[in-house]
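Following up on my earlier thread - several people asked me to post the actual chain instead of describing it. Fair enough. Here it is, all 428 residues.
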Amino acid sequence: MSEYDRGPQGGGEYPPHQQYYGQYGQQQYYDQPRDQWGRPYPQYTQPFQAYPPPAYQPPPRKRHPLRALSLTVVAIALAVVAGLGIGHLIADANSPTASGNQNFGFSGQPSASQTVLDVDAVSAKVNPAIVNIETELGLQGAAAAGTGIVLTPDGEVLTNNHVVAGATSIKVTSIGTGDTYTADVVGYDRGEDIAVLQLRKASGLPTAVIGDSSKVAVGDQILGLGNAGGKGGDPVPAPGTVTALDQSITASDESSGSSEQLKGLIQVRANIESGDSGGPLVNADAQVIGVDTAASTGYQLNGRRSGGAGQGFAIPINQAVDIAHRIVAGTASDTVHIGKTAFIGVSVTDGRGGAQIRQVVPRGPAQEAGLAAGDVITAIDGRAVDSATTLTSVMDTHHPDDQLTLTVTSAGGAQRQVPVKAIEGPVG
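Reply from S.P.:
Thanks for posting it. Predicted structure:
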C-alpha cells in the first residue's frame, strides 16, 4: 500500500479506482476483476464520482501547510495491457542478492536521565540518515512516495512494505547527500509491513543510530520524521509522547478486502501522517526506536482511513531490525519473501471454496495454460487455496520462473491439475 498518488505531469487523469479529487481526496472503488493478490484491475472506462471534502479538516503542521494532502494509492493492480511486458520493466542484472551487509542494529544506550527532546537538535542528527522514496506504479501513469531509514553506508534501507507495494520502479533520494538512486527490493514481510531496499551503486551514506525499543516507556518524548505529503525535501518533524505499548491494530486494504494484524506496536500522540510511513520514530537521544506506520486512503488502520488525528503507530525497531536481518540474509519463510514477486496472470475473487478466476491476462501464463473465467483455483502445489487472500499468501512463497501445479475446478465442476510457469510481477 503506497503513500501518495499523482497523475502524469500536466495531466490530471487517473485510473478511476485511484481517482484524485483535490486537496482532500477520496477513492471510488468499483466491482471489478481482481488480480492474483485480490486487487482490482484498473477500469479506464468506468465512470467516477467526486466526493465533497470531510466536514472536519485537521490543521496542517506549522512548517508545511499542505501536509494534510490526501494520499490515495493502494498497492498497484497490474493492468491487463501489461501482459508479459511487466517483467521487462522491473528485471535488472543489478538486482540485489541475499547475504548482503548485515552490519546494522542496536548501536547505543539511551541516556540514563529523562532527557527533554530538542526537536531541532534531534532532527539535525537524524535527518541525514533518512531517504525519500518515490515509486512508479506500472503502466497506470501514477506514482507514490514514502520514507526510509538508511541502515548501512552501502545503501540498505528499511521501510514499510506498503510504501513500495505495487512498484515497478523505485527512486530514493538521500537527505544526507542529496543524491538520488535507483532501488531494488531485497525482500519484504507483508504481515509485519516491513521491507528492505538496496540502493544501486551507493556508498558512504550517513546511517541511522539504532536504539533499543525494549527500553521505551509510556510518557517518553518522541519525534516522528518523514516525507510528509510525498513532497520531498527535508523531513517534517512530528513531536509527541508515547501513550501505549504492545498495541495490536488491523491494517486493511479496501481494494482487496484483505487484512493483516500488526502486533506489538508503539502508540504515540503525534501527528504521524501518510507519507511518514517507513520513517524513523526517534527518542530524545536521536536514536531510532520505531518505524512509523501511517494509513493512507484505501489503507486503513483500525478502520481509520488516514492519520493526522494526533496519534500514530510505529513498529518497534528491535522487531523491524530482526526482520531486516532475515531478509538481508535471504532467510525466506511463509511470511518473509526474498527477491522478485511471482505472477500467474489471473484476476480473482472469493468464490466456490477457492479463488475464482474473473479474468485472465492476455498471453499470460494462465491463459497459455488454458485457464478461463469461472475456473476456481483450490490449491497450488498441493497447498490449499480457499480465498483470494490465501492465494496472495501462497504466491508470496514463490518466485518468477517457478513451475507451479494448480488444482483447478471448472465452472462445470470438473477438477484438473494445471501446470503454470510464473512470470515476474510488481512488488508484493
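The CA atoms of residues 142 and 220 lie 39 Å apart. That should answer part of your original question.
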